[in-house]
Amino acid sequence: MSLITTGAAFADGHAAELTIAIVNNGHMINMQTVAEAYTEETGVKLNWVSLEEGVLREQVTSDTATGGGQYDIINIGMQEAPIWGAAGWIEPLEFGAEYDMDDILPAIRAGLSHEGTMYAAPFYGESSMVMYRKDLADAAGVTINDNDSWARIKDAAAAMHDPDNGVYGACLRGKPGWGDNMAFITTVVNSFGGAWFDAEGRPQLDSAMWNEAINFYVDLLGNYGPPGSEGNSFNEILALYNEGKCGMWIDATIAASFLEVDGVAYAQSPNAGVSAGANWLWAWAMAVPAGSPNAEAAKDFIEWATSKDYVQAVGNHPEFGWGSVPTGQRTSTYSIPEFQAAAGFASAELAAIDSAAPEASDLKPYVGVQFAALPEFPEVGSAVAQEMAAALSGAKSVEDALAASQEAATAIMKEAGYFE
After folding, report:
1. How many angstroms separate the CA atoms of 183 and 177, rounded?
2. For the chain, which terminal residue's Cβ has fewer other Cβ atoms within 10 angstroms, N or C?
3. How far apart are CA 308 and CA 297, in angstroms?
4. What is the pLDDT of residue 127?
């Protein structure tokens, strides 16, 4: 696929100018450098707005819902894409045959589509897994297995925990946000057999499963995590891990691309007897807000930035290389010999993505793993996130935090008309 695309300039011959809102994760930051070649070849000027995850969600949601027109391209994920597509907030995406839509991993494509139409193209996809320091585990005399029990994970964290020497047994998300601490917490709750809502949309945060899961989470991270964990999400923990301060980290598989310490090993996510929902499914994707005056040029850029050619461009780029290509997106990436040689995490990542279970079930009567694919979920999840951070910090008991969460979630869902 050539960088030069038919819609990359306005009809009068002037090159387009695109404003792109991105999350400040490593692959997105790298894209700014790789895309310099796109500007050189097409003349399309790219204005980047790089935002922390929670801020990005707030600003993009507000601007897109109101038709504010601040951005031509936005980063969104699986929670928003099908809902916003159905609502007409974002443009449907249709690309040429060379794009090879069938090469997009099926679970990722489905999660970004509504009624078979893709509304956001995946820049990278991910599940979650255990990333641990095998050297520290070996020294502590513990092993970490695929789909281990949470009890064994806690024992391993305790054995590796050595705060006097700056090593914490487990580094886990605590920063409040529906896509921050609640992404990890929801997988824990799922693995204990809990769910956000019943089939009528009634919140279930006062259940025994939620209580057991949150008490476990607070105990694990409170005793064997770094101080101030209620302020840590992906980027903060990545920095801690690369400073050699974490025995294990259970988080997005994409993190493996950015780990710089030696001796990292991988395992499939643990559970407490329920494996479905123990590892999440997500994609950071690119979408075009409805009504953008630069919609065609925006779609052309997305077609390039999520293509096989883009993967090659990163792999062959002097500043990056094959260990830095966006993963969890295309089947073909995993068969590239250079990628296989550079990415020791590839098989573990692909296994995690393939085993993710976003479908509705008897335990979880809604679509989504670490989120619920309901329009009200971001508001519910954000409210509960604050309560979970309060429980983690010790400002509230787990019981009080869950009671407040149940009250807030019930009010939101009742006002939305799910029940009276």
Report:
1. 8
2. C
3. 19
4. 98
- Residue 145 phi/psi, 5-degree rounding, is -110, 160
pLDDT at 6: 41
Residues in CB range of 139: below 8 A, 6 or more apart: none
- How high is the mean pLDDT of the chain? 95
Q: Is 266 helix (H, G, I), strand (E, B) or coil?
A: strand
Q: Which of 31, 115, 114, 42 is nearest to 75 (CA)?
A: 31
Q: Using one digit for the tens of pLDDT, what is the confidence trace for 151-162?
A: 999 999 999 999
Element containing residue 49 per DSSP (H, E): strand 45-51
pLDDT at 267 over 50: yes
| Residue 382 CB neighbour total at 10 angstroms | 20
- Neighbouring CB atoms inside 10 A of 274's CB total 16
Surface-to-core class of residue 102, CB atoms within 10 Å of its CB (0-12 exposed, 13-18 middle, 19+ buried) = exposed
Alpha carbons 265 and 148: distance in angstroms, whole number: 14
